[in-house]
Amino acid sequence: MPDAIVFEAAAFAARAHKHQLRKDRDTPYVSHVFRVCLVVRHVFGFDEPEMLAAALLHDTIEDTATDCDDIVERFGPVVAGWVAALTKDMRLPHEEREAEYVAALAAAPWQVKVCKMGDVYDNLNDCAHLSAAGKRRTCSKSRTYLDAVADGLPEKAQAAFGLCEKKLAEVEAGLDASPA
């Protein structure tokens, strides 16, 4: 059953992120990875099980005790490679880490770029509770990541890119309309 990988990835992500919370300190973190998967599937229209699994697992290496070997063992080398491409090297200083991550995103397969766009889209949707400064940081990072994934997208992924651009513009317009 091809969808089995999606169900297993959802359960794996739920276990891996079980004690984590979002920045609002109230929402379970795993809701983010579930929403990223839902965005990739229902907003962007991609139903490939390996892509959906990567969307669910995109933060497991970076934010939990999971390593790439765990992902390879459970989900295979394709999903593991995609999750690795979506992972920042937290051992590096911030500036170097971000530069390497952006370069990796730019060179990544289009499926990884779609998962990253799902992440960006969800983070933009989920930033209403942030301060104006927090929203500006989210918008700035979103712009950087969208610029990184823009090239090499097949036609079917370009629509997802357009939806992310629109969401970013909406959040930025809200910042422009609010008092400084």
Sum up the structure in keywords.
Hypothetical protein af1432, 180 residues, Bifunctional (P)ppGpp synthase/hydrolase relA, mainly alpha, MESH1, 9 helices, single chain, guanosine-3',5'-bis(diphosphate) 3'-diphosphatase activity, hydrolase
Give a short synopsis of this structure.
The protein has 180 residues and is mainly alpha-helical. The chain has helices at residues 4-16, 30-43, 49-57, 60-63, 68-85, 94-107, 110-125, 132-149, 155-177.
* SS-derived structural category: mainly alpha
Q: What's the structural domain tally?
A: 1
According to CATH, what is the class?
A: Mainly Alpha
Q: H/E element string?
A: HHHHHHHHH
Give me the CATH fold name: Hypothetical protein af1432
The CATH homology group name: Hypothetical protein af1432
Instruction: Give the integer mean of the pLDDT values.
Output: 94
Principal-axes shape call? globular
Provide the helix percentage.
Answer: over 70%
The proportion of strand residues reads under 5%
Distance from first to last alpha carbon:
53 Å
Number of strands: 0
CATH architecture tag: Orthogonal Bundle
The count of helical stretches stands at 9
Gyration radius, rounded: 16 Å
Q: pLDDT under 50 segments (min length 5)?
A: none
Main beta sheet: strand number and arrangement?
A: none
